[in-house]
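May I ask you for just one protein sequence along with its backbone structure tokens in two labelled lines?

_____
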Amino acid sequence: MSNNCHLGSAFDDFLEQEGILNEVTEVALKRVLAWQVEQAMKERGLTKSKMAKSMQTSRAALDRLLDPEYDSVTLRTLDKAARAVGKRIKIDLVDVV
């Protein structure tokens, strides 16, 4: 029998025990959103310049949105990006398990 206290536990439980679950979740969410916007841009053949123009924002603001490490993106910016690629943002509140 192993003395490993993490054996069989969920990864989220481990992150919670380490006190980093929220931070890791936020980073992962931002990376996924940035990737989704970038993929949608490619599907539509949008350059960064065209995308920024469609969003009525600067290319620097778009670069921040696409930067997986930059975490201060507003819902308004995400909404503009989604609309520019023919999509919409969907956000749900879910119970904490």
